[in-house]
Design brief:
By secondary structure, this protein is α/β, with parallel strands linked by helices. It has 2 domains: 171 residues, Rossmann fold (3-Layer(aba) Sandwich); 97 residues, 2-Layer Sandwich (Pantoate--beta-alanine Ligase, Chain: A,domain 2). Strands 1-4-3-2-5-6 form a 6-stranded parallel beta sheet, sandwiched between helices. Strands 7-8-9 form a 3-stranded antiparallel beta sheet, with helices on one face.
Length: 284
């Protein structure tokens, strides 16, 4: 079932809660792929009713980004989500989410002020604002997100913590293609040749991970390992390659032996911007 209006989805959620149902929300921008479907399947295991949201959020796109050409196919998404176990699709129009009178945004500091926050000014304000609005519309007990947008997952956890939202956040591991490329709706922008080269991202992340597991702790050396591997390909323009503490995104010169480290990469392959990450747990 497709629902397009906030009041309608709120009324549905209220009814489900009266019936004792546990609601799980999967926020997406649509054009679903196997990564999204894995989130829906996980959501089905976590609760009774799954509500997937499809909303290409204009607030999180910069003026030179791909909002207008972002892929959209509602009928396809409906069928795929249904097959994965989804119960309801919430598909609001931009005017429903942001009417003419709209004048409120949400800003989260610290973790949003580096990496993607620098590369895409205003992006995380858009993310925090739309996620809060979606939470207030769907009223879930649990929300499920993918690890691929790692910095975003930290932002959402901080949003829930700081604003005392009664929602459990569940993070699902990144789903990858056979060559390791993280699944993304934007992968369809890649030409055949670019797609053959895109697996280099995962190789660079794994080479840095191997160095860490073999004892490397200097941040600049770890960053350099990723940079050097990606830089061999002329069509790749590196935005950042960064090792940071997984919980805070702080960047010490030398990591402690019990640190949990996240490796973050953002780049353009041709005209397509791709991001990925890998977590190295040394605290086990």
């Amino acid at each position: 079932m497709i629902i397009k209006h906030i009041k309608e989805i709120q009324q549905l959620s209220d009814k489900l809660k009266i019936e004792g149902k546990k609601i799980v929300c999967v926020p997406t921008m649509g054009f679903l792929h196997e990564g999204h479907l894995s989130l829906i399947r996980n959501a089905k295991d976590l609760g009774d009713t799954v509500i997937t949201t499809l909303f290409v959020n204009p607030l999180q796109f910069g003026p030179k980004e791909d909002f207008t050409k972002y892929p959209r196919d509602l009928q396809r998404d409906f069928e795929l989500s249904k097959d994965a176990g989804n119960d309801y699709l919430f598909v609001p129009e931009a005017t429903e989410m942001y009417p003419d009178s709209f004048n409120t945004t949400v800003k989260i500091g610290d973790i949003t002020e580096k990496f993607e926050g620098v590369s895409r000014p205003g992006h995380f304000v858009g993310v925090a604002t739309v996620v809060l609005k979606l939470f207030n519309a769907v009223k879930p007990h649990i929300a499920v997100f993918g690890q691929k947008d790692y910095q975003q997952t930290l932002l959402i956890q901080k949003l829930v913590q700081d604003l005392n939202l009664d929602i459990d956040i569940h993070i699902v591991q990144t789903i990858r293609e056979d060559d390791g490329l993280a699944m993304s709706s934007r992968n369809i922008y890649l030409s055949y040749d670019e797609r053959q080269k895109a697996g280099l991202i995962y190789k660079a992340l794994n080479q840095a991970k191997t160095a860490i597991l073999n004892g490397e702790r200097k941040r600049n050396v770890i960053n350099g390992i990723m940079f050097d591997m990606l830089n061999i390909e002329n069509e790749i323009t590196i935005d950042y390659c960064a090792a940071a503490l997984a919980g805070s995104l702080e960047e010490p010169d030398v990591f402690q032996d019990n640190a949990d480290i996240v490796l973050l990469v953002a780049l353009k392959l041709g005209t397509t911007r791709l991001i990925d990450n890998l977590i190295v747990n040394l605290n086990n």
